[in-house]
Amino acid sequence: MITYRNQLHWLDRLRMLSRLLLPDKALKYFPPDFTLRDPVLSRVHRIRRRGLTCALLIFTVRPAAREWLDMTPRAANEWRSLIQQTLIACVSRYYPEHQIVGMKRIDDCDAVFLSFENGEPGQDELALVAQRIAGGMSHRLAERAGDERLLVETGTFLLERDAAHTMAAVQSASQFARAVAAKRLPVEFAALRQRLLRMLEAEDISVLAQPIMDLESGDIFGWELLTRGPAGGPLHMPVDLFPFAEQAGALHRLEYLVIHKALREIAKRQIKEQVFLNITPVTLAEPKLLDRVLDWLKLYPAIHPGQIVFEITERHAIRDYTQMGDIIRQYREHGFRFAIDDAGAGYSSLQSISELIPDMIKIDRSVIQNIDRQSVKQSLLKALLDFAEDINCQVIAEGVETEEEAGVLVSHRVRIGQGFYFSRPEPICSGYGHTHFADLKQKIMQLRQTSSA
Are 95 and 21 within 8 A, CB to CB? Predict the structure, then answer.
């Protein structure tokens, strides 16, 4: 059976035959899909090779094409042509001909590519103009269709300059622009992502260190290195920075940078204790990461792999424990060790411990908070300590904020603790070797005497 979609498809092909031999410039606006080349992408590719910034604006008419299934092939074709001609007219009101690289259909969206010779446009300005174009389209189409319910959704995005291939850059930009248009991402997402990428390019992150204390000797057991984005900005704290980097498709790049910068700081400050580096399972599973880390360690021969503890965070669930176990074994062959974060906070962390058998487990702050006043938390602590002893894991209690909480840990023979009670995260240069830790050691020893009395 020949459906109206097939008829429409062949009509497009027949129209295309008369245009196949035309140059790219003549196929600038909505070339047919069935061509020997993609003239719009060819033009985009040439723009990128010249080093110019290229922006993508996408537009979608809702309801899509006046309910295509209820239209004859001819009517549907006329309606689509009207949408495209309206878009061309509205875009031309705001951008000159030489700046319009081309327009084409991408899935169910009409895409507009623009070039900018004088640097990158402001994302806010780009989004504002796109909204005005969408408003103009909605008004004109509603007049022609007699339907005030017509809505034109729009999203914008800049093509990444460092993307290896034009097609990859277009697909990435299209994905994000469509998400903005559908309101799955906020309008300001594009501007914030641009800010994130500039931050990564400039390596504009800070590395802080929080000591992990030996509660038996009062000495420093190790350090957890923590990341901060630019001060005063929306990406300063890790609780905002890392989820946004994942959403923006830059999580691997951020975590690679964090590890490299942390190793640089360890070498620079001549830290000899073990160092804990947070990492998500998805980045740990990246095939290139291990080779990259080993290459970095060659730059800093004073750091040995046994000094590094990768702390697997709960930001992502581990989907394949067999695969993750194989990955961890590869790292352990070089001497690296592993800790599981947030033990006691949920089932997934306990499953990770039982499946992967880490070298250390870090008891979540939710267990430690007010543990001196809640006997059920003390029972949970005992269970976790027994579990860790059975699988030969060291236990670190996180989130210790009061003397009373620390006292409970000492009385339950928890050897290692971390939290604001001992020290807040600080720049390594001001924390390492500071007399503060001599005072802290004395405080821990007094705490032990009080607990044993």
Answer: no
